[in-house]
């Protein structure tokens, strides 16, 4: 099968496009014919060697954790899916080696859910990792409740734009930080936008004089450091971007595959409460260009790699 691989740590320049063996299918997995996969910052961070101390890597590596496609074969123990099912998944295993930037991926069933009918394959490929990150942070780390006010830092990005919609669906009021050019986009998602930079705290206080109930930080740094002073009494803080959140009394969130959570996201999409902004698409052989665009960090929504 055709796939993207890398044989050593490095920049997007180490990516190669070519033939690799089709993956073997374990008893608890399904073989997915990939229609689309999305790029996440963790892809190029693993590729650069940043996670070498915490994850085993087996070279050559096929990058990518997000996928949307069609089940082509099921393992002997699988009852959750059948051949022909349209699925999406966050296909993260305990080691890095066989990812989703390929024509086929052998995906453990615990990493998959049925694709929502409301989303095409490209949009569905952009949902799993980012959507699960937002969903798990909001529902489990922050335990957001109806009527609460939530502040989302970097609200126009891949995770942020989904977090805004999920928090709104949970019945919360959402304030989102973003550059001026993305303010109308955020209003369309249901958030009240505020600009980054000097004076951020004052701008948030103008909208929430008594403080916000929860802050979801997706960028770290100065935005995270100012967040505790914006919380109401009993307010909660979580970050996916900066471990310094622990010293500030908050929680650090690292996403995990979860079929039930993926299914909840699919239901929100089918109810018209959740959409995925696809910023750009690239064919599989141009995955390096997709990574480079993602690494710039200024993209609104998700960058997707398509597989013919």
UniProtKB/TrEMBL annotation:
Concerning InterPro entries, the annotation shows:
ADH-like_N, Chloroplast_QOR, ER, GroES-like_sf, NAD(P)-bd_dom_sf
Q: Which residues form the Enoyl reductase (ER) domain?
A: 10-305
Q: Short name of one Pfam family for this protein?
A: ADH_N
For this UniProt entry, the molecular function terms from Gene Ontology, in alphabetical order, are: oxidoreductase activity
Name of this protein: NADPH:quinone reductase-like Zn-dependent oxidoreductase
**Species annotation:** Kitasatospora gansuensis
């Amino acid at each position: 099968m055709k796939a993207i691989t890398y044989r050593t740590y490095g920049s997007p320049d180490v990516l190669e496009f070519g033939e690799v063996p089709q993956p073997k299918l374990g008893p608890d997995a399904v073989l997915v014919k990939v229609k689309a996969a999305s790029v996440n910052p963790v892809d190029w961070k693993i590729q650069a060697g940043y996670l070498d101390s915490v994850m085993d890597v087996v070279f050559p590596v096929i990058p990518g954790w997000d996928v949307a496609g069609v089940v082509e074969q099921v393992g002997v123990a699988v009852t959750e899916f059948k051949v022909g099912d349209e699925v999406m998944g966050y296909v993260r295993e305990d080691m890095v080696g066989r990812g989703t930037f390929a024509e086929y991926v052998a995906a453990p069933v615990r990493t998959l859910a049925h694709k929502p009918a409301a989303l095409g394959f490209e949009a569905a490929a952009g949902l799993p990792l980012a959507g699960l990150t937002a969903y798990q942070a909001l529902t489990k780390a922050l335990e957001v409740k109806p009527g609460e006010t939530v502040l989302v830092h970097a609200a126009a990005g891949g995770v942020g734009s989904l977090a805004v919609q999920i928090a709104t669906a949970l019945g919360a009021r959402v304030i989102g930080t973003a550059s001026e050019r993305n303010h109308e986009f955020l209003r369309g998602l249901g958030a009240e936008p505020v600009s980054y930079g000097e004076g951020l705290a004052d701008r948030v206080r103008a909208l929430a004089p008594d403080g916000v109930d929860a802050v979801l930080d997706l960028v770290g740094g100065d935005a995270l450091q100012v967040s505790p002073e914006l919380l109401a009494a009993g307010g909660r803080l979580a970050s996916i971007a900066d471990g310094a959140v622990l010293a500030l009394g908050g929680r650090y969130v690292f996403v995990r595959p979860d079929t039930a959570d993926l299914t909840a996201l699919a239901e929100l999409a089918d109810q018209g409460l959740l959409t995925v902004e696809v910023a750009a698409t690239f064919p599989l052989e141009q995955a390096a260009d997709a990574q480079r665009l993602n690494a710039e960090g200024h993209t609104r929504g998700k960058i997707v790699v398509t597989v013919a």
